[in-house]
Amino acid sequence: MTEAAKGPVLVFLFEQPGQTHSTLTSPPLRAQCEEFLNHLSGGAASLTERWPAAPLLQVLVAAYQSGSDPGTSPTDGLLSFAFDVQGGNQSSPLTKAPACGEEPPPPAFPNPAAGFVAVADWLLRRGNNCSRVIAIHATAAPGPGSAEIERAAGMLKTAADFCGAPAWLCNLWVTETTGLGFPDEAGIGTEANPVVKSLFRMSSPLGPAGSEILDAATGASCSPAARCFEAAPSLVGGLIARFAAAALKSMCSRNGASSVEEVEIQAFLLPKDGEPIEGCQDALSVQANSGCLAISDGAGTASYSAEWARALCRQAVSRPPRFPPLAEPEAAALSARAAALKVWLEVPLRDWSPEVPWERLLRPVMYNKARAGSGATLAGIERIGPSESGGIRFRAWALGDSCVIHARDGTLLSSRPIARAAEFGYDPKLIMTRPGLEAKYAVAWQDWEVTLRAGDWLLLATDAMSEYVLRQFEAGSGEDLLSTFDDLSAKPGPEAWRAFEEFVQTRREQGTLRNDDVGLAVLRWKK
Amino acid sequence: MASTYQQQISASKNLPGCLIVLLDQSGSMGEEFGSDKRTKAVAAARAVNTALEELVDQCTSGESVRDYFHVGVIGYGGAAAQNLLPGGAAPAGLLTSSELETKAQVEEIEKEEDDGTGKLKMERRSKWFEPAANGGTPMDDAFKIACDKLRQWVAAFPNSFPPMVLNITDGEPSQPEEAEKAARALRQISTSDGETLLFNCHISASGKLPVKYPISDQGLPDPHAKWLFQISSDIPESMLKKAQDARLEVAPGSRGFVYNAAAGQLVKFLRIGTVVSASSFDR
To answer: Global pTM?
Structure first.
């Protein structure tokens, strides 16, 4: 059993100037980092003392040495993760060993990409133990933007999303150049330095919640399309410091606590071959505390479907759908279910609409397509509790062609809502952003119960992977497939992701797995 | 034999699809078509413009139109065939889907529907070309122009899903033998994924029952219908289920051919090039 509470996570990843980047050392970034944490703690002994309402304020501090040879050993004094857990002593925030004691400090990072991946892994291993992730990447002398760094930053954002804790990935360029704080695309301009453009692209949009926080912190009004990017000479004097402090303050009033059985969960999201992770329209969310997991596939035929899929997943794990059963008389039951669905969809709809940049959709085809709305499938599970036979009971639900697949001893026990590989089509049922379709959803919505026994597998997958998995079971190769998944679970996070990418790529090349986005969550109860 | 018609249409991997529409603009297209007194030329132009709009819509995601497709429209009437779209950046002057979007003229038309304030609802439609009806039926010339374009296109994209050519006509070609020869040459232009697909739609105001996607020429009413059947490609197996999902009445062995189509069937026929093709986009 794991006792945990939700609070924000602050990730601070900064460049430790190396031999090739030693010009800007006054004050060095390390000193700025310490000053920044002191600023956040406002003179209190610990961040949790300053923000007492935070049930679990976690701070991760990591450094990388830009310009060093990745093959060299870590530099002396290079910082590793530090954690400030509830009630923790903050007297030596930057050199404190991991408080949870579960894992050794990670190796020093040769570059920001490795740092982003390590933080993503850290988040994935914890599941949903946080309410929001503020990740600040500070660099004094950014190297040229590379696909690898952007991809890793995308992975961090995806990992945070998976944990149901949307991330603000903020980039700070510590430079004498001033006057660039939380700009929008117009603020960056087309003539900007490629490094600035790259950092801007990596930075998260503030979104309505971030804008509200920043506006309150600065007293000014920022662009609705502003991103968390700043070029400033000092971290503490910059907008990011104010943003982080205000964001922490606004989040610290939210908390919650529950427990969960020890079920091992691994989850993967991969875009189509040739697409960046940001182009992935599948979404996953997990709420490990309550044993909730949701997966969704945004319709590629619509605009802003990834945003809709993520909004649905967040809602599904924070407020699992529990709709009235389909009892007799059926018409009344369907009507009650439709009414419940309508209420349940209000939150994700409210989340989705501001994500569409209406003001930028000036061409009719783009505006009309966004107006037509988005659609996404949804499937998920919620832990009910122990079964009489010693298993764990889950309630499962689905609409569309994302599946919940239950296997035991290499045998397929059930797959819903699609039972056979040949049943996948090109026109799945979807939950739309367009209102008034609840009666249809009430008919299409499925919920059922699954009891997991020790050694059982529960797979949640979007259509391409579901089809592949079912075909393997139909061909008698289910046991081999599960053995592959077993091997993946033995690997540490980044390695598992790489191995999964290879697994997917190989099958795409063989033509046995459609080149579609892949969302997969693998649950195994290893008693 | 390697399987064909399996390639996914991909913008990110530079494996676009190619669609060329051949549109009969002969004098007989000026005849009335359907119940609303429009001419065949007007109805066909509207159907093709709508299909192009649908294609752009299928390629649109958020704030961008992705280049899943390269597109051309060739009209044939009078003495020769001609391009109905402006030249674009794709091989042989075809338009990429993003160019297609920028070249559209947007017209606002009134719908017979109240907008809630007592006024008629306005609908915005995209238009790329105007209807025309004039002279003979130089279908052979259209096939030849399409051949030239497709040879250049497959040279640039040898591994893409094979090009699709949708031919809409209301009558017999002026030069049947030349047309047949050109059609056969057209179908032989290949990528590594298969030969060019030539689908034909014969439109008619006769009110006779249409023949949709037949698997043989038995029962076809006249030699011209049999001829169009013969030059039409089989609908590949990989497209059958997608076509069925798009509510086209196809079966294994069906040819891409409709005879005596009314306006509704023409719109559905064009969906082979838009919705059905788009279902294999890697999105």
So the answer is: 0.65
